[in-house]
Amino acid sequence: MKRMRMRDMAYLLMMCLLMSACRGEPAERETSSVPEQQQQPSQQPQQSKPPTVKLTTIVPEKTLDNPVGVVSENGVTSSLKGKLFAVEQKGKIVMLDPANPTEKPQTVLDIRDRVYSEGSEQGLLGLAFHPKKPGVAFVNYTTKTHTVIARYVMKDPEHPEVLDPKSEVILLTYEQPFANHKGGQLAFGPDGNLYIAAGDGGSGGDPYGNGQNKHVLLGKILRINVDVGSGGKNYSIPADNPFADGRDGAPEIYAYGFRNPWRFSFDSETGKLWAADVGQNRLEEIDIVVKGGNYGWNVMEGTLCYKPEEGCDRTGLIEPIHTYGRDLGVSVIGGFVYRGSAIPGLVGWYIYGDYAKGTIWALREEADGTVRNETLLQSGELITSFGVDAAGELYVCAQNGSLLRIEAR
Prior knowledge:
Layout: H1 6-20, E1 53-59, E2 67-71, E3 84-88, E4 92-96, E5 106-110, E6 124-129, E7 136-142, E8 146-156, E9 159-163, E10 169-175, E11 186-188, E12 194-198, E13 220-224, E14 253-256, E15 261-266, E16 273-277, E17 283-289, E18 300-301, E19 304-305, E20 322-325, E21 332-337, E22 350-354, E23 359-365, E24 371-378, E25 383-388, E26 394-398, E27 403-408
Antiparallel strand pairs: 1-27, 2-3, 3-4, 4-5, 6-7, 7-8, 8-9, 8-10, 11-12, 12-13, 13-14, 15-16, 16-17, 17-20, 18-19, 21-22, 22-23, 23-24, 25-26, 26-27
Pfam family, one: GSDH
Protein name: Glucose/arabinose dehydrogenase
InterPro entries: 6-blade_b-propeller_TolB-like, Glc/Sorbosone_DH, Quinoprot_gluc/sorb_DH_b-prop
């Protein structure tokens, strides 16, 4: 998610100081003004610009301990339909009730005894609930040397919100050579498979060339079937994975050529997979990910050549749908295509932001293939992630431990 260069570290320190000076702000903030076949969105009038919105604080700062994500249980369990689950980087998952924000967060899972979170980009990084099985969840966390994808189940059917730390079943591990660029996102796709974001393994510039090496899992979006084990593993390979037979690449790979895909999401209406990939020196990018796609890193950074700096071979590389440069931010945070009902004019816009500058944008593909990008608001937050509840409404997770909701103004 973040940089390891001294210049960026100095910049982020400055931003943190600025943010701490703004903690007395009011809760509401005004706005400033070759793919595979996808399901088409339903026909509806489209606004030329997204509507004016505000951020409303749901839980105040310091409620959460270094949160890096917030998810819902997708309505699988009726008693948990309105609840949200925050991922705390040190190794805890807690449950929040946006309808009762003063309630103390309830611990759902505490695995701090096995999570290594000493590095700024290590720790408990992802959570996904099974889309059909209540009380079953999957997490992405780091040890000092590896990424671990594991399954946990509920302690008691009477309390499906509480996961048993002793129930851990490890599905997948892969070695991490450095302390940064872990990716970390987990999400179930419309096909029922589990998708996993894996960064390039860290350092700077992808020194081992992991992004373009199809025989390692780093720098990839992975896809596995968690419902059926095979070959002595607690998962199996979907038959249509691009390298399912393992001859030309690791069978778990769905797409490759990523640097640090910090957050991705599926459009709940079209099924499109949107990913935000953090750049190296010049560009942050938004990608629409398709099966077997090569998104360029480290041959390219966004739309620019990286290695070599000029005249790189772009053959077969899929360029991002949108990029922005260092004048606008330093670390892109992926979000969601809004499909809620509370803000009709926002439907169909992809909402994302920047970690350090706190800007939140709305992006949309137009019918003619062009892309429209509009500033939605300046949040004044160090944004770590976006989340969506079971009703499709959007939330912003901030590093100061607060959770905010995007609402119509």
